[in-house]
Design goal:
The protein is an alpha/beta fold. It contains eleven helices and ten strands. Helix 3 (about 80-100) runs antiparallel to helix 10 (about 225-240). It starts with 7 loop residues before the first strand and ends in a 9-residue tail after the last helix.
């Protein structure tokens, strides 16, 4: 499995692999290349018997700002590139859940939209004190993907998830811990050390038992994940054609408040 660009780094230290999103100039936003590379990187970690715990983080003080709207606008067929990007990211999400190894999200900064979905899909979430979270999709007239509607309601409850989806508040790291979105908050300069220590503890643990527990949680809680990912994909592509989505994206580029008309 090859990397298409340098947008992903894999750093293997002993039995721990760190998968690092490396598009800081674009706030680690997910385009087709990064989505495909992330899926490939996670599959490598899943297939490597020498890796017993996986860590996901970002560079440049950013975890992931969601989908790369600017990049998608550079293609003649936006629908097609959006579909391919979503499909690549959904493959990565399925790999996180299906790999028989614990996956830790070290949320080191801005975490919007699909970035929140990826963090929520992990088994453990640790956040830097300066990290901020935002659902982000609906503010530009779009709908969640990457399992947001599966993972986030399970973590924070359906009522809070509805508030996040409809009102789109910015959530601080401390607020994220209070509502159950992350497990712990660590000083910015200590996040990676703390995350690696947790990963090391897991890598030295009873990994066969961990794998079985993860499988049981998937079977109990996320049994319909693949079907829900497909619903999210279809809804996203349908809503992408709406007048409100066009207005939301235009407002994003023009740095103004959108004027939605319900169409």
């Amino acid at each position: 499995m090859r990397m298409h660009t340098d947008d992903i780094r894999i750093e293997k230290t002993g039995r721990i692999a760190a998968v690092i999103l490396n598009r800081p100039a674009s706030l680690n936003a997910l385009d087709l290349s990064l989505g495909s590379d992330l899926s490939d990187a996670l599959a490598r970690c899943a297939d490597d018997d020498g890796i017993r715990a996986v860590l996901i983080t970002g560079t440049g003080g950013v975890f992931c700002a969601g989908g790369d709207i600017r990049s998608a606008q550079g293609y003649a067929d936006v629908d097609e590139i959006a579909d391919k990007t979503i499909s690549a990211c959904h493959a990565a999400i399925l790999t996180i859940r299906r790999m028989p190894k614990p996956v830790i999200a070290a949320v080191n900064g801005i975490t919007f939209a699909a970035g929140m979905s990826f963090a929520a899909a992990c088994d453990i979430r640790m956040a830097a004190a300066s990290a901020v979270f935002r659902q982000g999709y609906t503010s530009v007239g779009l709908t969640p993907d990457c399992g947001w509607t599966v993972f986030v309601p399970q973590l924070v409850g359906p009522g809070k998830a509805s508030e996040m989806a409809l009102l789109d508040p910015i959530i601080t790291a401390d607020q994220a811990r209070e509502i159950g979105l992350v497990h712990s908050v660590v000083a910015d300069n200590g996040l990676l050390t703390a995350a690696r220590e947790t990963a090391g503890r897991l890598a030295c643990g009873p990994t066969a038992a961990f794998a079985a527990v993860k499988n049981e949680i998937n079977s109990s809680v996320f049994v319909h994940l693949e079907e829900q990912l497909e619903i999210e994909r279809m809804n996203f592509l349908q809503v992408l054609k709406s007048a409100d989505a066009r207005e939301g994206v235009a407002a994003f580029f023009e740095k103004r408040a959108p004027r939605f008309e319900g169409r």
